[in-house]
Write a structure and sequence with these properties.
33% helix, 4-stranded antiparallel sheet, 295 residues, 9 strands, alpha+beta, 5-stranded antiparallel sheet
Length: 295
């Protein structure tokens, strides 16, 4: 990334290009997709036609996007190297309002480790491979050759910006740019969650006649438990409600005949906890379902 020449606004009503645009054009010429940022270092909001991604969004990270919107929409996905787009009327209007230039690191084959304060910079110097550094207002950007997924807060004061993200352009930086290494990629690997405790044993009332389940075959119960697990696992929202209603349905069908075992209950609790429910929430939902049914 080379240092573009900045062109300032002219005086006395005579003006050159919007101040950030020459920088953007110079970066684009080197293959770095760029976009303008407004006050607050934020991208411009979507136009009415693109609001709430009604146009289908811009999944292609290297172009102006399939929605054909002439404006600067869809944040990082709007970043482009096309000078015709960058100097179009809609984009020029945005450049006049812009406070700085941003770029899409991933589409340029780069990864930026954003070190937000002095403590983060000190940590990086001791733990990450040296590479090109760019000074920021509070810390540094370390730029590596290579692409990875973007992650926020991988540790205190450290973000990773590569694919599906944007970074401010703050100058060419100093030092040679090195290849992305495992030490950086490892920052994005989450430690495995601690094992959840086993659900408490719950004794169910037995009302079977002559010690036999009223259901026709054991397969009926197995299908019921499997369907309940699937319903919980496939829930995309209202997890608490889904878990409670699923427990209620299982108990309504199987809670009075004595065929449910602790193993069956454990399967349901495990499915619920995999969706983020705590053991306490599972127990409360199960108890509330039993109370509703009078068990």
């Amino acid at each position: 990334m080379t240092q573009p020449t900045m062109i300032r606004r002219g005086h006395g009503g005579m003006s050159a290009l919007p101040e950030p645009l020459p920088t953007a054009l110079a970066l684009a010429a080197t293959g770095v997709p760029v976009l303008p940022l407004r006050a607050g270092k934020a991208p411009f909001g979507n136009c009415p036609r693109c609001a709430n991604n009604a146009c289908g969004g811009r999944p292609n990270m290297k172009s102006a996007g399939p929605c054909r919107c002439p404006g600067v929409c869809h944040a990082w996905a709007a970043a482009t190297t096309d000078p015709a787009v960058l100097t179009s009327p809609a984009w020029t209007t945005a450049w006049w309002r812009a406070v700085c230039v941003a770029y899409h690191p991933g589409a340029a084959g780069l990864t930026v480790v954003d070190l937000d304060n002095a403590a983060a910079v000190d940590w990086a110097r001791q733990n990450l491979p040296a590479t090109r550094a760019v000074e920021t207002t509070r810390g540094e950007h370390w730029i590596y050759r290579g692409v990875m997924s973007s992650h926020n807060a991988v540790r205190p004061g450290v973000d990773i910006k590569s694919t599906m993200a944007y970074a401010r352009y703050l100058g060419p930086g100093t030092g040679p740019m090195t290849a992305l290494q495992e030490a950086v990629r490892a920052l994005a690997v989450k430690e495995p969650a601690p094992a959840r405790p086993a659900p408490p044993a719950i004794t169910l009332p037995t009302e079977a006649e002559n010690g036999e389940c009223r259901h026709r075959t054991p397969a009926y119960l197995e299908r019921g438990i499997a369907m309940a697990e699937q319903r919980i696992t496939e829930a995309r929202s209202s997890i608490h409600t889904t878990v409670y209603r699923t427990f209620l349905a299982v108990l309504s069908a199987h809670g009075r005949c004595g065929c449910l075992t602790d193993a069956h209950v454990a399967r349901l609790f495990t499915a619920a906890q995999a969706k983020g429910e705590s053991p306490r929430h599972c127990t409360d939902a199960w108890t509330n379902a039993r109370t509703t049914l009078g068990l």
